[in-house]
Amino acid sequence: MSTLASTIDDQFAAIGQQYYPGSTRPLVRHHNRLNTETAPSAVDPGAWDAKPRKYVVGGVETEFFTVGDLATALGRRPVTIRKWEREGIIPKSTYQSTGKDGDVRGRRRLYTRAQIEGMVRIAHEEGVLVSHQKPIKGTQFTARVIDLFKRLAGDE
Predict the structure, then answer these.
(1) Interaxial angle between packed helices 78-87 and 67-74, expressed in degrees from 0 to 180 and rounded to the nearest 10
(2) Vertex 51 angle, CA 49 and 55, to 5°
(3) Among 3, 6, 126, 129, which residue has the least CB neighbours within 10 Å?
(4) Are strands 53-57 and 108-112 parallel, antiparallel or unpaired?
(5) Please, are residues 90 and 84 in contact by the beta-carbon 8 Å criterion?
(6) Alpha carbon of 9 to those of 17, 28, 29, 123: distances in Å?
(7) What pTM does this model have?
(8) Which of 83, 84, 55, 81 has the alpha carbon at shortest distance from 68?
(9) What is the mean predicted confidence (pLDDT) over 128-155?
(10) CA nearest 70: which of 127, 104, 113?
């Protein structure tokens, strides 16, 4: 490394911001998915249910939550939940809302509180909630979640 580059790195380090070696571009640090102390979803585990959508189903007002809320509850990203649904790891959402004016392109997957709380409990029991290293397909998570959804559908 040249003397000029090391001098620049030393100056930027003294300021307190880290930069890529030999560059003035700030170093970007992302949350480590395995570090649950700093992960956004671990800051407030109850935050997933802060904004329920309420709809009347069968004459009863019911709280529903989006795929983003489910992802937060499971400590994952919404894209992961959608992938799990596509691959059959979790069943398709039982409820959906359509976009403005009934447009199906704006459909939203909706889950009940019981579905999310059940999936979180099962994920914890199967060891996939905290550890991203344990392959989800190597557990009983899928079978148990499918059973949960069937049981909850029978209760309605």
Answers:
(1) 100
(2) 100
(3) 3
(4) unpaired
(5) yes
(6) 10, 15, 17, 44
(7) 0.67
(8) 81
(9) 84
(10) 113
Quick check: 65 and 96 in contact, CB under 8 A?
Answer: no
Name the nearest CA neighbour of 84 among 58, 53, 127, 123: 123
Q: Tokens for 75?
A: 């400590």
pLDDT digits (tens, 9 = 90+) for 4-62: 555 555 554 555 567 667 777 776 665 444 444 444 444 355 678 888 888 888 898 99
The tens digit of pLDDT for each residue in 60-116 reads: 899 999 999 999 999 889 999 999 999 999 999 988 887 777 666 777 889 999 999
Structure-block tokens of residue 129: 């909630």
3 Cβ contact list (under 8 Å, min separation 6)? none
Burial profile 91-102: b = 16 or more Cβ within 10 angstroms, e = fewer: bebebeeeeeee
Single-letter amino acid, residue 73: A
pLDDT of the residue at 27: 66
